[in-house]
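COURSE: Structural Biology Practicum
ASSIGNMENT: Worksheet 4, Part C
STUDENT ID: 0417
INSTRUCTIONS: Below are two proteins. For each, the amino acid sequence is given first, followed by its structure token string. Answer the questions at the end about the second protein only.

PROTEIN I
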Amino acid sequence: MIKHCLITLIFIFNFTIVFGQTKTEIKVPEFDDNYSKSVKILENGNIDIDYKSFRESFIESEQFKIASEKNTEFRELTIAMYKLMSESEFDSVISYTKKMLSIDYTNMTAHKILRQTYKIVGDTINAEKYKTIQFGLLKSIVNSGDGKSCESGWSVIQVSEEYFILDMLGVELNNQSIDNNGGICDRMEVTDENGEKKTYYFEISNVFKGRENLKQK
């Protein structure tokens, strides 16, 4: 009897560690647009979607306008998230990343931290889910070009995507400027981990399109 109780307690303890105590869920927008429908599909576990179209649907959505209004809140959530990470407050990290994704589900940083945290606490199912989404978003950018010229620049919808990719590349930004040769791009002059100077280009027509959409709200 005692042995049975101990086994039960161990199971409950392990279940708590794996799945945590956080009750925060990602809030799916209730608008009747492609972005909201796609977030619902992804949250339901159907992660085989066109991530490029999904990202582009965000700047056309009602949620994009809300996200713009919540820019300060999003920034504060990001700062708090990194602090909680440094303190190994994993349940809170999960809660904060979900709050971030409730504002902007295309944010790769939030997906990255969420899937890494799920991996730490042993929730392999959610870790794999958000890893697939993160890399789906990332590949939809890097597969749009090679980033070596403005004509073949990586197409982004937000400047934050540019900084995420530069961070993934492990480079330090030295200078950022607008380039109009062959399109409209952000020209990023960087230094890699070996001290080599490189230049990457990000096609930003959708960034300006998003800004124009906000003016029409």
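PROTEIN II
(use this one for the questions)
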Amino acid sequence: MVLGTMMLHLGEVDGLVSGAAHTTANTIRPALQIIRTAPDVKLVSSVFFMCLPDQVLVYGDCAINQNPNAQELADIAIQSAMSAEAFGITPRVAMLSYSTGTSGFGPDVEKVKTAVEIAKQLRPDLMVDGPLQYDAAIDKEVAALKAPNSTVAGRATVFIASDLDVGNIFYKAVQRSTGIVCIGPMLQGLRKPVNDLSRGCSVEDIVFTIAITAVQALA
């Protein structure tokens, strides 16, 4: 891993894909030490591209940040929206929770509310809303009942999990239950493209991850 990361750092290669035989930590640690984050970026996060039959959805962060605070969650939302846009997906960002609007309460809900406020302050042009339950974020009929005034509910394209437990479970649940193509995790925030794979990945997963790494390198 260190050798491959050094090759990327020196410009001998344009991107790096790892993880089929290495842990996420062993993939990311050399990248953080050698490649480092892009200018003005405080954290590295990740997204998955969930290739449904009729659209591609973006899920983040499902692989890196264990328990992000509100500021970090806002940064993840903005990074994920930028990644979606880079791949031709109009970003409509749903900040996920067990509560929609004021239907529930608790520290986790308050964290998501604060993250939404921060994201809107940093990127007032971005369509972002929350807290939203997943059904309200993706289903127009549910959205009409639970969040009728939301510009995101019912038509979200980017879904931000409140922590790594939620993110990792829900992307794998969708992938394994439906059999859809799931590309990622694509890392965000590094100066050069470094992408991770699950050790349970298929050959198809590897090929697709190489493809998005190439697109990142050309950007």
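ANSWER KEY EXCERPT:
Q1: Residues 99 and 195 are 32 Å apart (CA to CA).
Q2: The helical segments are 2-9, 24-35, 70-86, 107-122, 134-138, 140-146, 164-178, 203-218.
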